[in-house]
Design a protein that fits this description.
The protein has 489 residues and is of the alpha/beta class. The strands form six sheets. Strands 14-15-16-13-12-18-19 form a seven-stranded mixed beta sheet, sandwiched between helices. Strands 9-8-7-10-11-21 form a six-stranded mixed beta sheet, with helices on both faces. β8, α6 and β9 form a beta-alpha-beta unit. α2 runs antiparallel to α5 and α9 crosses α10. Bound molecules: NADP nicotinamide-adenine-dinucleotide phosphate. NADP nicotinamide-adenine-dinucleotide phosphate (NAP) binds next to α7 and α8.
Length: 489
Amino acid sequence: MTSLLALTRPDLFQTQNFIAGAWVDSTAHYPVVNPATGALLAQVARAGATETQAAIAAAQQALPGWRRTLAKERGTVLRRWSALMLAHCDDLAALLTAEQGKPLAEARGEVAYAASFLEWFAEEGRRVYGEVVPPHKLGARVVVTKEPVGVVAAITPWNFPLAMVTRKVGAALAAGCSMVLKPSEETPLSAFALAVLGQEAGVPAGVFNVVSGDAPAIGDAVMQSDVVRKVSFTGSTRVGKLLMRQASDTLKRVSLELGGNAPFIVFDDADVDAAVVGAMASKFRNAGQTCVCVNRFFIQDGIYDRFMERFAVAVRALKVGEGTAPGSDIGPLINTTALQKVERHVQDAIALGANLIVGGESHALGGTFYQPTLLTNANVQMQLAQEETFGPVAACFRFKTEDEVLALANDTPFGLSAYFYSRDLARVWDFAERLQVGMVGVNEGMISTEVAPFGGVKESGFGREGSSHGLDDYLSLKYMLVGGLRTGG
Ligand code: NAP
């Protein structure tokens, strides 16, 4: 099938599974549509257990050669892959916006963010140092080395179709592992394009494989395989828990980047303009469909009116439109299930006493477009306080004291990210330490970067991606005790 998109590199548009360096069709196919228009983008080969087993076998076969490669050579391949992503940024962004819906400017930003993980791990892979430990007895040496865990499976969501992949594959390949990737069936085209560029960069056949299609069948094949030694998953807490249960049969290592319920707290002493900028960035990026998106705004009494007035102006100014339309800030939601969840949360909040300040309905553009929405007088009984809304809805609570807001912020099973605005240095350290999350933005609404460890606590999962810690999940320690040596002088 040829692409309707005008790509500079038409070969970046692929619709089949990528196994052992070749494009492999399936007997069944499924449609991938543009969420902004409902238009058919591609009929994609639908992988199931058979294709997944073939991909696992290819990764197993490719593993010995890849893990033997010098770290420097693996780094060279990853750096080339990163550079190719940047060189083809416009094509990758066009594919991403077409299948995911985010504005083109955000899609370009994601391409750069995604490429940064390949570059980062190209460098980190050369610093997988071991240890020489003072021995516990004479005539012995104790040495600790780090080895790749082996064949890895990655399962990724639709909200960042490139970046969620590269922050796994960059680390895995740098560590010397081979990989089978299952992207979301909503957004496989970005992952396939990534595979094209990976091959061009010199990733050997079988080191990176992509299968897309029947999620439970692919998931079962991966989880039942004793060849796959680790699974790295980004997605919902529900599926993360399922995979962790399934991993117990073969005792696979698991890392889980799951959902959040981020609080955004504005204290009386905050810089109100900076807080509004941070609120807009952390709430409305990707139409509110990021795991680190603010889900609950807590505003202190003394600053409440000033903040809400400016926040409402900024929310009203957001422009909803197709990702390809110039000036669009908010694209469509990914599908009708997502739209229905947003509608349910807003209606439930209004029924329980929330005041509607901006939006509150589907957008006139129809489809899955929803108006940027601002609600005040939110309370903890509302569904939007309990679970991720994953849409362009800002729900605001009013609070009086620091202890009160700390208890509210931590009153959730999730613990991914939190944000707060304050200019009181003493409070900044203490409050950040008492938040039960993996990441804190202090006077800052955008926290994601390849240089810092990304991940959560509680039911937001475990494991860290990016940073110098991002390699750890793909490495095993091996300790060698060499005995019978001379004791020396
Ligand atoms: P999801 O439904 O859990 O899907 C994530 C991935 O799991 C998709 O590839 C999906 O495949 C696959 N999957 C579904 N059922 C499966 C099964 N039985 N076995 C194996 N794989 C299965 O999550 P989503 O709705 O796509 O993504 C949104 C969620 O991801 C939100 O909760 C968000 O907070 C979270 N997220 C977390 C982070 C983080 O770093 N913590 C980052 C981004 C997103 P199909 O799509 O093909 O069904």
